[in-house]
Amino acid sequence: MHLPLELDRPLVFFDIETTGLDVKNDRIVELALIKITPQGDVIERVRRFNPGVQIPAEVTAIHGITDQDVVNEPTFCLRAKSLAALIEDADLAGFNIRGFDLHMLVAEFKRCGVNLEVRNRRLIDMQNIFHREEPRDLSAAAQFYLGRKHEEAHQALGDIRTTAAVLSAQLERYPHIPQDVDGLHKYCDQIRPFRTGVDLWFSGPPEERVFIKGKNKGRQLSDIAQTSPDYLLWMLREIDDLDEEVMEVLKQALDVPVQ
Q: End-to-end distance of the chain based on CA atoms, in angstroms?
């Protein structure tokens, strides 16, 4: 692999696959890296880890890694020191590492008692370059799909007129994507599901809600309301940015009047 860059120290490209997007509660299940030295040497590594928590089915559907695939793999902590040594002297690069991957990697190392210092490293993020050089706003979409400038940018009526025109152009340009509203909804949901405040805390139907984060992850809300109501009261009292809908759900579970 040759880069049109002059390196004064190694550059490590890396990518991770995880059990989810919660830096605090989710875990890394796979780490791949390519280390390029100033001398042109290339080192590739791929490691899988037993995360110690279940990999949700919807996450497996994205990266293809199942619980069974990693059941016999070592934990991240068993590899942490050797991985830290491998990237110790390197700058870091990847796609969206500034937004997610690096935060997860630092947290994972920290849980293992290893400090991954990033302040003295140069961080190259291809997503940043992509978004800066190829804008992805409505004006860019109008130019790409309609071949014209969006003259009424940031005027509400003008924006939605252009948005509707862009959708028509997209449906013509991509005949393989769904051509009906229900199908388009499911298509968009696969890319970026719309998560309400309740969705961020619970899975399952209202009568069988299960915590998906926090110390009671995996337990039913109704069970916690019966056995550990103080936890729900703590959530209501101490979590400042708790969504109002979540507050209503908690109060209902505690049989407290919703105000």
A: 62
Query: DSSP string of 58-117?
Result: HHHHHH---HHHHTTSPPHHHHHHHHHHHHTT-EEEESSIIIIIHHHHHHHHHHTT----
CATH code at position 88: 3.30.420.10
- Report d(CA 180, CA 172) in Å as an integer: 13
pTM of the model: 0.64
Q: Residues near 207 by Cβ (< 8 Å), separated by ≥ 6?
A: 222
Q: How confident is the model at residue 119 (pLDDT cuts 50, 70, 90)?
A: confident
**Domain carrying residue 220:** 197-253
Same domain for 142 and 201, yes or no, is no
Tens digits of residue pLDDT in 232-241:
999 999 988 7
Specify whether 15 is located in the same domain as 86. yes
Last-in-domain residue among 130, 148, 177: 130
Residue 65 lies in a domain: yes
One domain for residues 164 and 240: no
Number of domains in the chain: 3
Based on its alpha-carbon atoms, the radius of gyration of the chain, rounded to whole angstroms, reads 23
Torsion of CA 199, 201, 204, 209, to 10 degrees: -140
Is 33 in contact with 13 (CB distance < 8 Å)? yes
The DSSP secondary-structure symbol of 144 reads I
Q: How far apart are alpha carbons 219 and 217 in whole angstroms?
A: 6
For residue 204, what are the β-bridge partners?
A: none
- 175 and 210 both lie in a single domain: no
